[in-house]
């Protein structure tokens, strides 16, 4: 009597290829769609980008070991992985659209310092995510962290360029935003922080404080420090629907004020240097070369005269 061979379904064939380590079934991911019933995964070093919906709805997935060569996580790659608690994203630069959407037990993004782009709804409704540290991020797209109701603080670095529509919408526990003003203008959508009722503290870090302390007049320094602190007196006393607009306006004001004071200081230095330089011709004719050089160094003319006057002549001003 002939015997028949039962061919297991594709997901079971993949599980049969898994390894067992310390009693745990470890699935080695080398491409394609992962079986839905995996619990522990190691990403093979041949994988550089985790593709579209790779681990979609793997509701038992609890552990994923990445490697340093992974540069991107594709659209919906881990959507609805409701048991996933943490993931190491070392060297990952882009998290795609809805990549971790509704991973409701995801508590931490480890080693997220190189992330540059957070896609649309990338972490939508990740209600256990407590904080994010994104010093290299440039863009947080629409609803990137919307509904992260347990997030208490977020850190953004000097590269940030855009915080798009509803980026942090309904992050009801968000209390503190820490970020650095870089050289780029920051575009903040009008509702980026809507329904962030607890947002009351903005911490501005980085070179801005060095710039303030280097201002020549103490009253300028005091004015800048008052402006920086103003937002923390304002946020606790306004409706959450107004917080984004106030934050955006405050960022623009801080940037424009420090630039204005720097310009005023540089203009004053230029005027002083030029004024002192004109006095050189009125020095005693018998003055030594050393005396004239010392005067020029003291007033800055050694730098100003050859550069600024040459510019003025070249522009026929």
UniProtKB/TrEMBL annotation:
<protein>
    <submittedName>
        <fullName>Uncharacterized protein</fullName>
    </submittedName>
</protein>
<dbReference type="InterPro" id="IPR053139">
    <property type="entry name" value="Surface_bspA-like"/>
</dbReference>
<dbReference type="Pfam" id="PF13306">
    <property type="entry name" value="LRR_5"/>
</dbReference>
<dbReference type="InterPro" id="IPR032675">
    <property type="entry name" value="LRR_dom_sf"/>
</dbReference>
<dbReference type="InterPro" id="IPR026906">
    <property type="entry name" value="LRR_5"/>
</dbReference>
